From TrEMBL:
Keyword Cytoplasm assigned: no
InterPro entries in the record: PbH1, Pectin_lyas_fold, Pectin_lyase_fold/virulence
Protein's recorded name: Parallel beta helix pectate lyase-like protein
Superkingdom, natural source: Bacteria
SUPFAM superfamilies: Pectin lyase-like
Gene3D superfamilies linked to this entry: Single-stranded right-handed beta-helix, Pectin lyase-like
Keyword terms: Signal
Annotated signal sequence range: 1-30
SMART domains xrefs: PbH1
Record bears the keyword Signal: yes
C-alpha cells in the first residue's frame, strides 16, 4: 500500500518546487522552456479552495508541463500561461473563479509581432472557468481568457461560465494598437454559458490564422447591444490577420446580441477575413436582432477584388429575427442550410452606395416561414453576380401583406442575377408573390437568367433575358 504523504514531506516538496520556479521564470517563446517536473498540483504550492491561488498557479506553470487543478473553487487573477503547459482539472468541479475587480482570469502576451516568438503548446481541459456576470453584471473588457500572440492552443471540455466580457479573446495585445498574431487554435467540446446574457461574446476573434471551433455548446449569452456568440471582428489596423476559420458541429441556444449568432464584421481599411467555413451547426431560439450568420466587410468589392471564400453549409437555424445578412463581401456561398421561422427578411447587399455584394450563391437551401413579420424571406439590394439555385421557399413572407414575396429586390441595383431550379410554394389561402421588384431597384435584364423554376401559380416580376 502506498504511504500517505506526511505533512513535512508535502512542505519540503512545495519548497523545492517553489525554489525551482524562482530559478526558472517562464519565458514567452515558441520553443518553450526546460521544466523541472512533469506533473504538479496547485496544492503543492499552497493553493487552498476559496482563496487567491494566483501565485501558486503561476509557480506551478513555471515548473511543470502538466498542472492539475483539483476539485474545488480557487480565485485567479491575471495569471500567465507559459509555453508547453497543460492545465487540467477533474471536470466542472474544478473551478478557477475570476474576481470581480480582475482584468482577466488568464492572459498571455508574446510581446512580439513575429509568430516565431509566440507562446506555444498550450492545452486546457476538464475544468470550469467562472466569471461573475450574474452577481456583478457585464464589463465589456474583462475577459476570462485573453490570448495575444499564441500558437498551438487547444481547449477541451472546458466550461466557460458567467463571463462578463468575452469567454475567449483572441486578440492583438491587451493595451491596444499592438501587433500580435495567433495561429492554430482549437476549441473543442466546450460549453459557453452566459447565465443571464450580461456578457460580450463567447469567442472574439481579432487576429487568428487557423481556428477550429468544434462540437461546442453556446447558450444564454450576449447582451442586447453586443455582437453575438462568435464574433470575428478585427480592429482597424492593417496588420490584422483573420483566415482559415472553421466552425462546425456547434449548438447555439437562446443567444442575444445585435449582429448575429455567428458574425463577421470588418471596418473599411482592414483586410477582409477569408477562408471561413461554417457547417453542421444548430441554432435555436435566437433572441437577438441580427441573423444566424452575418457578414459585412463595409466595402463595395471590385471585379478584381479577392474572393473571401466564405462557405456556410448544412446548418439548421430555427426561430429568431433574421436567417442571414450578407451586407457586403465577395465570394460567399450558402448551401443546403435549413432556415425556419424567422420574423424578418434576410438581406443580400446594401442600399448604402459605399457597400455592395459580389459573387454570392444560394444553393439548395430551405427557407420556410421566413419573413413572417415583413415583406419577404430574402431582400436583395446592390449586388453584382447573384445565383439562386435549387432553393425551396415555403410560405415566405407575411400572410398579412398582400405584396409579400419570397424574394424582394429592394432599393439598389443588381446585375448578373440568375434563378435556376428553385421552387416557390405556399399552403396559405393567400397567394404570395414568388419574386417582386421594388420601383427603387434597377435590374439589368440582359445579364439576368430565369430557368426551370417552379412557381406553382405564384406571380413573378423578375426581369431576365431568358
Amino acid at each position: 500500500m502506498k504511504r500517505a504523504p506526511h505533512s513535512g514531506d508535502l512542505q519540503r516538496r512545495r519548497l523545492l518546487l517553489a525554489a525551482a520556479a524562482a530559478l526558472m521564470p517562464w519565458r514567452a517563446a515558441a520553443g518553450g522552456q526546460v521544466k523541472s517536473s512533469d506533473t504538479v498540483s496547485i496544492l503543492d504550492f499552497g493553493a487552498q479552495p476559496g482563496t487567491d491561488c494566483t501565485g501558486a498557479f503561476n509557480q506551478a506553470c513555471s515548473v511543470a508541463r502538466r498542472v492539475h487543478v483539483p476539485a474545488g473553487e480557487y480565485l485567479l487573477r491575471e495569471a500567465g500561461w507559459p509555453s508547453d503547459t497543460e492545465i487540467f482539472g477533474d471536470g466542472d468541479r474544478s473551478i478557477l473563479r475570476m474576481p470581480a475587480d480582475a482584468a482577466y482570469l488568464i492572459t498571455n502576451d508574446s510581446g512580439s509581432a513575429s509568430p516565431r516568438q509566440n507562446i506555444a503548446g498550450l492545452l486546457m481541459r476538464d475544468l470550469q472557468l467562472r466569471g461573475s456576470c450574474d452577481a456583478d453584471g457585464m464589463s465589456e473588457f474583462r475577459h476570462l481568457v485573453s490570448l495575444n500572440g499564441v500558437s498551438g492552443v487547444r481547449f477541451e471540455r472546458v466550461l466557460f461560465r458567467g463571463f462578463r466580457g468575452d469567454a475567449v479573446y483572441l486578440g492583438s495585445g491587451n493595451r491596444g494598437a499592438s501587433e500580435r498574431h495567433n495561429t492554430d487554435v482549437v476549441i473543442a467540446d466546450c460549453r459557453f454559458d452566459g447565465i443571464n446574457r450580461e456578457n460580450r461574446n463567447g469567442i472574439s476573434v481579432i487576429d487568428c490564422d487557423g481556428l477550429l471551433v468544434d462540437g461546442c455548446r453556446f447558450e444564454n449569452l450576449t447582451r442586447h447591444n453586443m455582437p453575438g456568440a462568435i464574433d470575428i471582428e478585427p480592429n482597424r489596423h492593417p496588420y490584422h490577420v483573420v483566415r482559415h476559420i472553421h466552425l462546425r458541429g456547434n449548438r447555439f441556444r437562446r443567444i442575444g446580441g445585435s449582429v448575429g449568432v455567428i458574425s463577421v464584421y470588418v471596418l473599411a481599411g482592414t483586410p477582409a477575413p477569408r477562408d471561413i467555413l461554417v457547417e453542421h451547426n444548430l441554432s435555436e431560439d435566437y433572441l437577438g436582432t441580427g441573423g444566424f450568420f452575418h457578414y459585412n466587410d463595409n466595402r463595395a468589392p471590385a471585379p478584381e477584388s479577392a474572393h473571401a471564400n466564405v462557405v456556410v453549409r448544412d446548418n439548421d437555424a430555427r426561430r429568431g429575427a433574421t436567417s442571414f445578412l450578407l451586407l457586403s463581401g465577395k465570394g460567399i456561398v450558402l448551401a443546403r442550410n435549413r432556415f425556419r421561422d424567422f420574423a424578418h427578411s434576410a438581406r443580400i447587399g446594401s442600399p448604402v452606395p459605399a457597400m455592395a455584394a459580389r459573387d454570392i450563391a444560394l444553393e439548395g437551401n430551405l427557407l420556410q416561414r421566413c419573413g413572417t413579420a415583413g415583406q419577404s424571406a430574402v431582400t436583395v439590394h446592390s449586388v453584382d453576380g447573384l445565383r439562386f439555385a435549387s432553393n425551396r421557399f415555403i410560405d415566405a413572407g407575411s400572410a398579412a401583406a398582400a405584396t409579400s414575396a419570397a424574394v424582394l429586390f429592394g432599393r439598389g441595383q443588381s446585375s448578373g442575377v440568375s434563378f435556376e431550379n428553385n421552387c416557390f410554394e405556399t399552403a396559405s389561402p393567400r397567394r404570395f408573390i414568388a419574386i417582386r421588384k421594388d420601383p427603387a431597384h434597377v435590374l439589368d435584364p440582359a445579364s439576368n437568367r430565369f430557368d426551370a423554376n417552379s412557381l406553382n401559380g405564384l406571380a413573378n416580376f423578375f426581369q431576365a433575358a431568358q
